[in-house]
Amino acid sequence: MKVLVIGSGGREHALTWALSASSLADEVFAAPGNAGMAEDATCIDIGAEDLDGLHAFAKSNDVGLVVIGPEAPLVAGLADRLVDDGIKVFGPSAAAARLEGSKAFTKEVCDRTNIPTAAYGRFTDVAPALDYLQKVGAPIVVKADGLAAGKGVIMAESVKDAEIAVRDMLEGNRFGDAGAEVVIEEWLGGEEASFFALVDGETALPLISAQDHKRVGDGDSGPNTGGMGAYSPAPIVTEPLTGRIMDEVIEPTVRAMAGMGCPYKGVLYAGLMIEDGNPKLLEYNVRFGDPECQVLMMRLMSDLLPALLAVHDGGLKHMDLRWHKDAALTVVMAANGYPGAYEKGSEIKGVEAANALPGVKVFHAGTARNGGKLVATGGRVLNVTALAPTIAEAQTRAYEAVDAIDWPGGFCRRDIGWRAV
């Protein structure tokens, strides 16, 4: 079978790496891919949001399965186009992808099915939004309803900051159409965790637990980012809690989506806040987390490709997955200045030395080759990932690999996994 992975980040490199090891994969393509993915797949110069180009390539090259990594092409309906043409896809329809494409829609699903979540209000006009802020006070969370490249969530510690965020979105058009409606949400306390399940429209198969670090600085300080590191397992997600999450969050969502005529097929990623042992849903994503996907793929023992095919074919009830008992931890190396303005094109050395260390795999997130040199092309650039018997050992091994990389143009947090360690 020929497999096409869509995307160019660390998540897609991890998926490509896992799929290239499958006995069922004759050839793996990546569109557009990156310098690391080129070592495991044939990279095709087609952007992840070029729906026409991706559709044409999959059809003309007899691709047996298309794995859609990022959310934007899913929300735009790429899966629908491919399925309508008889091409198998891992990823939800546009109607089902509203779980990430519209935060207000997700809240509607929560209301309909009594899924525990933060109290909220939704607004398209400034005046009632400001009235609501005065009523509920701060701290508070202001979210753009639609996709905003990971930048549409403002954690406001004062009412003034929240008012600025509301005005920026509704009056200042900060996020364009994505911010034409805002969701103002209760600030939840507790510890955040990521929960993943494969879903085939009816059956949900939970994956192992993972936890990421959103803030840019050590000690979870500074602004939110796309993720500065992750580890698995997440000690806070115990077996009893897993059962509750499936019963109270995942399975009610799967039933609701099927009942609405848009059955969910793909990986369902629940961002949760856990307080006093009780889970509440922060948000849904309709694709693997990044960088959580990297630690999940490091721990996966089973062949990934049959599991993704089972999602499309509706065969998850017959599927089981095996996982390494060892822990995995990944450290994101980002360009200096991230998540603000950063320079591109700085040279990176030493990745080969890092990869040569036992239990280490460096996934590329924003890289390219320029005249034979490896250069940074994005904000988050490398995911230095290690597998070891404990999280503490995986942490030590990952930072040993980080220190083998020579990249003055980049930085990383030095405390990934601190909660577990």
Blueprint (SSEs and pairs):
Blueprint: E1 2-7, H1 10-20, E2 27-32, E3 42-43, H2 51-60, E4 65-68, H3 71-75, H4 78-84, E5 88-90, H5 98-101, H6 103-113, E6 120-123, H7 126-136, E7 140-144, E8 153-156, H8 159-170, E9 182-186, E10 191-200, E11 204-206, E12 211-212, E13 215-217, E14 221-224, E15 229-232, H9 239-259, E16 265-275, E17 278-285, H10 292-299, H11 304-313, E18 327-335, E19 347-348, H12 351-355, E20 360-364, E21 367-370, E22 373-376, E23 380-388, H13 391-404, E24 410-411
Parallel strand pairs: 1-2, 1-4, 2-3, 4-5
Antiparallel strand pairs: 6-9, 7-8, 7-9, 10-11, 10-16, 12-15, 13-14, 15-18, 16-17, 18-23, 18-24, 19-22, 20-23, 21-22
Task: Characterise this structure.
This protein is of the alpha+beta class and 421 residues long. It has 4 domains: 2-93, Rossmann fold, CATH 3.40.50; 125-180, Dna Ligase, domain 1 (2-Layer Sandwich); 191-318, D-amino Acid Aminotransferase, Chain A, domain 1; 327-411, Alpha-Beta Complex (Glycinamide Ribonucleotide Synthetase, Chain A, domain 4), CATH 3.90.600. Helix content is 31%, strand content 28%. The protein has helices at residues 10-20, 51-60, 71-75, 78-84, 98-101, 103-113, 126-136, 159-170, 239-259, 292-299, 304-313, 351-355, 391-404; strands at 2-7, 27-32, 42-43, 65-68, 88-90, 120-123, 140-144, 153-156, 182-186, 191-200, 204-206, 211-212, 215-217, 221-224, 229-232, 265-275, 278-285, 327-335, 347-348, 360-364, 367-370, 373-376, 380-388, 410-411. Strands 12, 15, 18, 20, 23 and 24 form a 6-stranded antiparallel beta sheet that branches. Helix 1 links the parallel strand 1 (2-7) and strand 2 (27-32). The longest helix has 21 residues, at 239-259. The N and C termini lie far apart (41 Å).
